[in-house]
Amino acid sequence: AARLQEVAKVIKQHDRSHPVACVFGELHDLQAVDARMPDVDLWGVNAYRGISFGGLFSSFAGLVHKPMFLGEYGADAFNANIGREDQEAQAKATAALTQE
Questions:
Q1: Which residue pairs from 11-14 have beta carbons closer than 8 angstroms and sit at least 24 positions apart in sequence?
Q2: What pLDDT is recorded for position 50?
Q3: CB 81 within 8 A of CB 57
Q4: 24 pairs with which residues across the strands?
Q5: Residue 6 region by backbone torsions, left for phi larger than 0, else alpha for psi between -120 and 50, else beta
Q6: What Rg, from alpha-carbon coordinates, does the chain have?
Q7: Distances (CA, A) of 79 to 6, 16, 86, 98
Q8: What pLDDT, on the 0 to 100 scale, is given for residue 26?
């Protein structure tokens, strides 16, 4: 987090007219990381939770008071229930997430 904060600070020194974004994998430890990175204006989240985002958005809002965007989202092509790739299930989950 320290290095990314340094980078965000340098970006702001050169461009104060655009927000600085950083993508964080998921919500684990985001609150602590955000506290150490005051020059990040908004967070991207990579969410691979299956067929629903669940409480992602409300959980994020309870942790951080900055805007959020989805950097990546989807579902794994590997289906553990059948022990192989399942592109049909992956497509179904991705469609459901896109509509959510």
A1: 11/39, 12/39
A2: 85
A3: no
A4: 45
A5: alpha
A6: 16
A7: 40, 46, 6, 20
A8: 87
Q: What is the C-alpha separation between 57 and 60, in angstroms, rounded? A: 5
The β-bridge partners of 61 are none
Residues 6 or more apart whose Cβ sits within 8 Å of residue 67: 41, 42, 43
The pLDDT, as a whole number, for residue 10 is 98
Supply the pLDDT for residue 42.
97
Length of the chain: 100
What pLDDT, in 10s, does the model give residues 79-89? 999 999 999 99
Q: Which amino acid is at 20?
A: V
Q: What is the pLDDT of residues 19-68, one digit of tens each?
A: 999 998 888 899 999 999 999 999 999 999 889 999 999 999 999 999 99
Q: How far is CA 5 from the centre of its chain?
A: 17
